[in-house]
Amino acid sequence: MKPDLRGYVRSLLDHFGPQGWWPAETPFEVMVGAVLTQNTVWANAERAIANLRAAGALAPAALSALPEERLRELVRPAGYFRRKARVLLDLTAWLMERFAGDAELLRGESAERLRDELLRIRGVGPETADSILLYAAGVPIFVVDAYTLRVLARHGARPAGADYESVQRLARAELPADADYLGEAHALFVAVGKRFCLRRRPHCSGCPLNGYLPDGGPAEF
């Protein structure tokens, strides 16, 4: 039986309402946030972004001019601050070289080429690259994160062992190729993963996706 991904999104939207994701003032801020939110909760990434904003470093030229030690201190709240500072500098250097620091120009580039180039930057994986493509460049691509993988697995919609690309292909086949829709869908999967589909003890009662569970209850993931 094919998973009803549109039904999932519809049920989540009815329950949670629009999420207004990604919370950023500029496409470059989206790029920064996509790096900072790796392996941490969004609240920690927000604290690091607030530090960068207070330091006047949320623009490509300003961030790239920061000494790496100073950048590390600013992004420390997001965790893994040494690695993330390096990734931010490399990502910003790429943006400066390819687009003269203008993240708005990402929208005029080939999505396939952009993704390939982003994935060549050390520390930028598929989830980070696709978040940048979707929320900064307006590319209709579904972002697969840990919440999405867990929710789909628990509801029997993700085959055992399915990797990032195979889940993305599933979403591409089932969901509209519309950036606004896919951005909302990703945010809604995050919302249900944080509030109901917890890693250790899922709260299935009251969950808007309760009706999509397999007959025997939540599947293992």
Provide a descriptive summary of the structure in words.
- This protein is mostly helical and 221 residues long.
- The protein folds into two domains: 5-19 and 143-212, Endonuclease Iii, domain 2 (Orthogonal Bundle); 27-136, Orthogonal Bundle (Endonuclease III, domain 1), CATH 1.10.340.
- The protein has eleven helices and no strands.
- It has helices at residues 5-16, 27-36, 42-54, 60-64, 68-75, 81-99, 111-119, 126-136, 146-154, 164-174, 179-195.
- The longest helix is centred in the middle third of the chain and has 19 residues, at 81-99.
- The protein starts with a helix and ends in a 26-residue tail after the last helix.
